[in-house]
């Protein structure tokens, strides 16, 4: 497996093919891009993993344990976690924004606008709660009713009787219930109010 680092200043989703200056040298943190030709039918070529990390050369102690002709092909990989511009973590699971957007705009859900707010759970120290605010079309033919939508949300967020108290779906009647950017007045799709740990 070949592991490369793409500069953190580059949006990996917007690049059809990265230029030479977009790649970082060993030891520098970047978006991890993976290539594996082991699956001949469906090889993985420059797959953007969504993780941040940095490849490093092997230390002399570790390199001594491998045949000399293989050491140049081996490296240590430091992982720093998921790229927070493309996903968020809640209750141990990662949720990618593009997948959330696809789900929320399913025609049968009837969601016109939504907002995700993560905050510290006041009732449970060290835990987070997620509030999902939605403005929906009027229920009618082809649109799920509130109970059906809440059931789909329970499945999408892997809620159990232990975690459902940390999730709240809020159905709004107009745009006034959304938090907006102070500078532009636009509705902010994702707000993280959690204290940094």
Quick recap of the structure?
Helix content is 14%, strand content 36%. The protein is mainly β. Strands 1-2-3-4 form a four-stranded antiparallel β-sheet, with no helix packed on it. A four-stranded mixed β-sheet has the order 9-8-7-10, with no helix packed on it. It has a two-stranded antiparallel sheet with strand order 5-6.
Describe the structure.
The chain is elongated, with a radius of gyration of 22 Å. It contains 4 helices and 10 strands, in the order βββααβββαββαββ. The strands form 3 sheets. Strands 1-2-3-4 form a 4-stranded antiparallel sheet, with no helix packed on it. The longest helix is centred in the last third of the chain and has 11 residues, at 146-156. Helices cover 14% and strands 36% of the residues. The model has no long low-confidence stretch (mean pLDDT 85). The protein is mainly beta. A hairpin with a 7-residue loop joins strand 7 and strand 8 (128-136).
């Amino acid at each position: 497996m070949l592991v490369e680092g793409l500069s953190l200043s580059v949006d990996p989703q917007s690049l059809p093919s990265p230029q030479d200056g977009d790649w970082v040298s060993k030891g520098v943190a970047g978006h991890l891009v993976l290539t594996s030709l082991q699956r001949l039918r469906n090889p993985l070529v420059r797959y953007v993993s969504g993780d941040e990390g940095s490849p490093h050369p092997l230390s002399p102690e570790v390199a001594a344990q491998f045949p000399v002709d293989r050491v140049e092909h081996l490296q240590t990989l430091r992982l720093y976690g998921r790229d927070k511009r493309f996903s968020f973590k809640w209750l141990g699971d990662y949720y990618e924004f593009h997948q959330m957007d696809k789900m929320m705009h399913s025609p049968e859900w009837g969601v016109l606008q939504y907002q995700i707010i993560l905050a510290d759970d006041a009732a449970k120290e060290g835990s987070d709660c997620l509030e999902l605010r939605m403005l929906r079309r009027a229920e009618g033919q082809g649109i799920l009713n509130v109970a059906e939508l809440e059931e789909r949300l329970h499945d999408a967020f892997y809620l159990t009787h232990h975690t459902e108290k940390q999730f709240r779906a809020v159905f709004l009647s107009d745009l006034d219930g959304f938090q907006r950017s102070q500078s532009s007045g636009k509705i902010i799709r994702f707000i993280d109010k959690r204290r940094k740990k």
